[in-house]
Amino acid sequence: MGKRGRGGGQRVMKRDFRQQRDNNWTEQRRRDGDQWATPTHENADFEEYYKMQGIVPEGEWDAFMETLRKPLPTTFRINGRGRFAADLRDRLQQDFFSQFSENMEVEGEPLEAPRTLPWYPDALGWHMAFSRAQLRKLPILKQVHELIIRENDAGAITRQEAVSMIPPLLLDVQAHHRVLDTCAAPGSKTAQILEMLHQGAGTPSGIVIANDSDAQRCNLLTHQTKRMCSPALMVVNHDATQLPILRDFQQKQAYKFDRILCDVPCSGDGTLRKAPDIWRRWSEKNGNGLHPLQLRIALHSAQMLKIGGRMVYSTCTFNPVEDEAVVAELLRKSESSLVLLDVSQELPELKRVPGLSKWLVKSNGELFPSWEEAEARQAHAKLTRSMFAESDISALHLERCMRLLPHHGDTGGFFVAVLQKVAELPQSAFVAAPKKESKQAKAPAQNGAKKLAEAAAWSAPAAQPPPSQNRQQPGAGGYDSALREQTAMEEVTDMAYEAAGHTQNFAEEIEDKDIPAATESACEAAAAVEGVFQVLSGGEEIAQEEKRAAAAAPGAAEDEDEKEAPEGTREKPEWGSIRGGGARGRSTGGRWRGVDPIVPFTDAEQLTSIRDFYGLAPSLKMEEQLISRSQSDDRKPKRLSFVSEGIRDLLMMDENEQLKITSTGLKLFERQDAKDARTSCLYRIAQEGLPMLLPAMTKQLVFVTAQELLRLLIENSIALPQDMRLPMETLTNPAALQNGSGGDEGKAAAAEGEAADGAQPPAKKAKTEGPAEERRERVPWSDPETLRQLDSIVGGCCVCTLRNEEAAALGFSAADGVAEGALAAHAPLAISCWRGRASVNHMVARPEAAQLAEKLRAALLKRDGPAPEQASEQPAAMEAEALPAEIAA
Ligand SMILES: C[S@@+](CC[C@H](N)C(=O)[O-])C[C@H]1O[C@@H](n2cnc3c(N)ncnc32)[C@H](O)[C@@H]1O
Predict the structure, then answer these.
(1) Which of 194, 218, 328, 606 would be 662's cystine partner, CB 3.0–4.6 Å?
(2) How high is the pLDDT of residue 285?
(3) How far apart are CA 409 and CA 41, in angstroms?
(4) Do both 37 and 89 map to the same domain?
(5) Do 172 and 135 share a domain, yes or no?
(6) What's the CA-to-centroid distance between 756 and ligand 1, angstroms?
(7) Which one of 165, 534, 535, 537 would you pick to mutate in the ligand 1 pocket, going by the greatest count of ligand atoms within 8 A of its CB?
(8) How high does pLDDT run on average in the chain?
(9) Burial class (CB in 10 A: 0-12, 13-18, 19+), 198
């Protein structure tokens, strides 16, 4: 079959794969004739290959294989650091894990007690291994299982495979770092990195750029990281070998990163325990096919790293061709500008084996120790020299790499190398070594040695593309194009197709049989193998798109020579004049088709209105840090998001719209569209923006008791007393809303009862006013202090938050009431609400409201003990079923 035909098939496979990717990997069964057969956990090629490689220490092979055949335990980490994370850890320990004992059994089957991951800092990483049968039979396991799903959805914990937590820990991220996560979707490591960035108080000066070459997976990445509520994150969609290198106007040089994670696409056999279908699809060809891409990603990343910066290269495969071979070639090409760090003293409790210094490469069914031997046997056609352990290998200290073996810690398999940049990479690093004499000789001659040299030159440190290249490629892909020509990508193509075939079938059989939430582990396993697609379809599509975008860019046809400012002279552009990568709805056209452009929000009238309405302190620099994604100018933007100073600066540096931005910024405000809910402010507060807004808010705040907050969360709406209800005229006369309660008029209107509460946002109203709601007897607000505050705010959006002293007593804030950090999991207990004509309703999504209610109930239970009617019940944290049906759901 020709390549064109197969490419079409690839697209279908890719779509099928994506549609199912959120599902959990379970034990797969495949149709075998008319029989359903459970896949065997055997693969002779796999065993032979890895036995020969010597990846497992002497005498441990059986234990290695036995563990690989078992399902993977559940692991999770408690988000964030500090007191809040420790509190949650202690609560889980007291309420749940203390109920397990050492020698527990379920119907004769031993049950392993949950335990902490010994190497994870502050005992915040946990491991639990129990079977499905045990889960069904032991109620406490079911409760723990549900708790983990709930806390994961709420952003308090993250379910993540244990070994996948290691790269971010070794990246050693600090709050001021610029961090790049090159292959980031679905985003479990990005989330971990973000937490590290946010470990101090306030908004960090550093940023995280999370990239993935697959646009749909970028959306998944956005979704996964949304719960982190970080204004310091930007998600971009590029081929990591062509990520644009921007010019840093502050440093007057290329924009570089302090930390880079290259968690590259790989063949994924380290995930066999959660993706058992790999057993029957495993082939060394997958790894051989991915090696060139992995190397190119690592090389380009190294170029984007600051001198002194740290880069982690990781895979979830045991395969040395994708692991040590890539690291070795990277070190070789760097000519000592990169150093492989000895991290044996970091995470000391983590059991690991050192990297290999010799390995074999398989081709045509034979294993070869060197390129020369493969060449002599005519078996080198689909190989590159860089896949082999060369004679210089001992000088590279590959023993500093680490391989995580499943039987050592009951985990998946993983590989990690930590590198530090000590000097700029030589230009020669970006010119590929000859692969095969015959083709090699042709390539420069056919394509032009000058072009190659030019491409390599402009990829040098801090250099900008020469004008001609710049017009062709918005990204710093100069060396890449050279590399493409020289590495004879078309030969890798076949291997990639084969690898992709493996992925397709793998994907086709995914079924969701277990956990309802999209699980991180499923996505990770999927990601590991899906990367294969990027070699061809994804990568090529992106390259095409980047070319198209460059051509479509305003002024692309002009002489770039005249436009390029000499190094070091670039001025900082005006905030209001920038446009972040996107084209949709722009009359001038933008760079990235189908992407809404990022537009600074500078509407002075609206900004003043928002600032006045919520009494926002000047410390919240909305005028310079608020953005929207607008399709056209004729309507006010639907959402306003806040970006950190670091992201704002990056947006300004990206004045040529080189970045294809999927998402950035923390949503603070949403346009209030309800026609019957007019207030003087067009924008209401988005719940996720509260951690950022609350410290700056001085108006529309209502400090309520814990019991009131709990009631509001459970009942959705609490009525105002009759004498505080607003008159009907406020529905059409916004000015009247500004004057607070309606006095006598209010009383008159109140006689019309609840159904007349037109100021409630219609969408919410539909949700909250079911027949059961109407039947429920509604006790109005009654605490005198709360009533005083409710009377002092104006109708429309407001925030109900726990009173400081209660927040401190219940452990939700420091004694001074100030939240630690901006992450959602550590945000003060506050909810975005709507003060309507006759009631106050919350505007929080149901799952989040349920989670907040449970958190509050647990804290109250801890402080006050069980309420009389609850005294005989289980701890509050376990009793979602005791909540009203709409919350428990
Ligand atoms: C192993 S997964 C990453 C998992 C992720 N780091 C996490 O922890 O959730 C590899 C990812 O690389 C992406 N990918 C594949 N080829 C790529 C390329 N050329 N550039 C950027 N991303 C790529 C895939 O879409 C996939 O999401």
Answers:
(1) 218
(2) 96
(3) 20
(4) no
(5) no
(6) 52
(7) 534
(8) 75
(9) buried
- Residue 720 Cα, ligand 1 centroid: separation in angstroms? 52
Tell whether 505 and 616 lie within a shared domain: no
Q: Is the CB of 183 under 6 A from ligand 1?
A: yes
In this structure, are residues 50 and 56 in contact, taking their beta carbons and an 8 Å threshold? Answer: yes
- Active-site entry in 266, 316, 797, 798: 316
**Would you say the CB of residue 268 lies under 6 angstroms from ligand 1?**
no
Residue 561 CA to residue 183 CA, distance in Å, equals: 33
Q: Which atom of ligand 1 is nearest to the CA of 167?
A: 8
Domain boundary among 159, 179, 202: 159
Q: Are residues 199 and 326 in the same domain?
A: yes
Q: Which atom of ligand 1 is nearest to the CA of 224?
A: 9
pLDDT digits (tens, 9 = 90+) for 635-685: 789 999 999 999 999 999 998 889 999 999 999 999 987 654 556 799 999
- pLDDT recorded at residue 471: 25
- Is residue 388 within 8 Å of residue 361, measured between CB atoms? yes
Q: Is 187 annotated among the ligand-binding residues?
A: yes
Q: Are residues 227 and 240 in the same domain?
A: yes
Q: What is the mean pLDDT of residues 292-298?
A: 98
Does residue 103 sit in the same domain as residue 247?
no
460: exposed, middle or buried (Cβ count in 10 Å: 0-12, 13-18, 19+): middle
Judge whether 153 is annotated as a binding position. no
CB 830 within 8 A of CB 704: no
pLDDT of residue 93: 85
ipTM: 1.00
Nearest atom within ligand 1 for CA of residue 240? 20
Same domain, 295 and 422: yes
- What tens digit of pLDDT does each residue of 405-448 get? 999 999 999 999 999 999 999 988 987 655 443 333 333 333 33
CATH code assigned at 521: 3.40.50.150
Tens digits of per-residue pLDDT, 134-180?
Answer: 877 888 888 888 888 878 877 788 999 999 999 999 999 999 999 99
What is the rounded distance in angstroms from the CA atom of residue 581 to the CA atom of residue 629? 10
239 and 304 part of one domain? yes
Range of the domain at 620: 562-671
Which residues have CB under 8 Å from 296's CB, separation 6+? 241, 480, 483
Residue of 529, 493, 485 lying closest to 381 (CA atoms): 493
The letter for the amino acid at 347 is: L
| Number of domains, the chain | 4
Q: Please confirm, yes or no, whether 798 is among the known catalytic residues.
A: no
Is 442 marked as binding a ligand? no
Q: Residues with Cβ < 8 Å from 186, sequence gap 6 or more?
A: 217, 220, 221, 224, 520, 523, 524, 526, 527
> Does 382 contact ligand 1 (Cβ within 6 A)?
no
Give dist(CA 100, CA 111) in Å, integer. 9
What sign has the CA pseudo-torsion 499, 536, 511, 845? positive
Domain membership of residue 390 (yes or no) is yes
* Average confidence (pLDDT) over 265-284: 94
